[in-house]
Amino acid sequence: MTNEFLSPGLDQATSDKIVSILQNRLAQEEEASLILKHAHWNVAGPSFIGVHEMLDPEVDAVRNMADETAERIATLGGSAEGTPESIINNRTWSEFKLMGRRNTQDYLKALIEYYADFIIAERKAYEELDPIDIISSNIMQDHVQELEHFNWFMNSHLIEEQTHA
Question: For residue 5, which phi and psi values (nearest 5 degrees)?
């Protein structure tokens, strides 16, 4: 049976490899949106309002990344898995363990550490994808650009906090 969603110019094995890479990225993108919202709800202390309000647009940005990744998977004939189990089953990165109401510095430091792994994984994905599917590679490159931008915001916010300490 022919896969009606197989993109012209790709064979099934290559498409399956691309989908596998993208599924891993989708899982972390989905998880990251949950983690960012968790931080949004639980930050407290100095700079609360600035950090609280800074997080929501990034939640939206990461959700949009996940949607773009999921739609690319579907375009290639795969089935995007967006369940909690798929996050756990695809995890190749460290878990985010900060829980409860904590000060902004604690959350920013934990998010910066999480984003370091996130950015590295997205970079690895586009390096793997580049020789086999430039379209998927470009999607991941765009995601890295957004993630790096927000990482800069978080690091810049911490520098402000440290200069007042």
Answer: -100, 0
92's CB contacts (< 8 A; 6+ apart) are 24, 121
pLDDT(45) > 50: yes
What is the value of pTM for the model shown?
0.92
Residue 26: HSE in the Cβ half-sphere, 13 Å Cα cutoff: 25
Residue with tokens 């586009």: 126
3-state class (DSSP) for residue 164 = coil
Single-letter code of the amino acid located at 148: E
Percent helix, strand, coil in the chain (nearest 5)?
Answer: 75, 0, 25
Which residues, including other chains, have CB under 8 Å from residue 143's CB and lie 6 or more apart? 25, 29, 65, 68, 69, 122
- What's the per-residue H, E or C state across 51-108? HHHHHHHHHHHHHHHHHHHHHHHHHCCCCCCCCHHHHHHHCCCCCCCCCCCEEHHHHH
What are residue 102's phi and psi, to 5 degrees?
Answer: -140, 165
Domain 14-163: give its CATH architecture: Up-down Bundle (1.20)
Q: Is pLDDT of 164 > 60? A: no
